[in-house]
Amino acid sequence: MRVVGFVGPSGTGKSHRALQVANSEGIEYIIDDGLLIKGNRIIAGVSAKKEKTKIASIRRALFIYEDHAESVKREIIKANPESILILGTSDGMVESIAKKLGLPEVKKKIYIQEVAKEEEINAALATRREEGKHVIPVPTFQIKKDFSGYFLDPLQIFRRKGKGRLQLVSEKSVVRPTFSYMGRYTISDYAIYQIVEYIVMNIKGVNRISRFKVENGSDGITIDIDLILIYGYNIKYLLDSIQQRVRAEVERMTALNIKALNLTAKGLVVQE
Asked: Is the pLDDT reported for residue 169 higher than 80?
C-alpha cells in the first residue's frame, strides 16, 4: 500500500484541495480529520469537527481514541486500498496517523504550498480566522445526519466543458464546528412549532394544527403533526406538499436534520 501525506498548517485549505491532490496522485481513499473517505462518500470514522473543544478535536484527528482508530482500521483492512492520502498539519502528524492506523511508512509528502498560491492560502486562513468555517471533502447530504444543528453549506466546484457549459467536478461541505463559536445556542421546540405553523397555515387546504410534537436525537429530530384539513382538497397531494415544504424550510432555517416528518389528517372541516 502506498501512503502519501498532504501537509499544511491548519486553515490553509487542505480539505478543500484534498480531492484534487488525491485525483492527481491516483488515490481513491483519504484520511482527513478523523474520517476515512472514498471519493465523495464517508466510509468510516467520526469527524474531529464534531468535538466540542479544540483539544478533543485534535485528539480525534490523531485517532487517539482506541475505538475510533480500530473502527477505521477495520474498514481499511476490508477495503485493502492500493494507496491512501493522509491530511495533516505537519510531517509528524501524518506519520503519527499512519502508525496509529497500522499503515505503511509515509513515502511521499505533498505540501499545500505546492498546490495553492500564496494569496489562496492567505484567503483560506482569513476565512478560518474570521468566520470559523471548516471544509469536509464530501457532499452536504453525506454528513447532514452527523452534523445536525451545525451550520452547513454546500461548496460546489465546477469546470467549463464546451461553450457555455459547466460540469460539476466535486462537492464539499462547509461546517462551523462547536469550538468555532463563543457560546452555546438552543432552538426550542416552540420556535420550531412557530416556523412550522407559519409554513402550514400559508398552504391552501389547511385549517389548523391540532397536535405538534418534536423528539430530539443526536442525529436529528422527529416531528409529528396532526392536521385539520379543509374538505374538497386532494388529501394525499396536500400532505405531500406540506411535508416537502416544512422539511425544506425547517432544515434551512435551523440547520437541524429532520429524520422523520409524520403527518396525520385528523379531521376535515367544510368551509362555506
From this structure: no
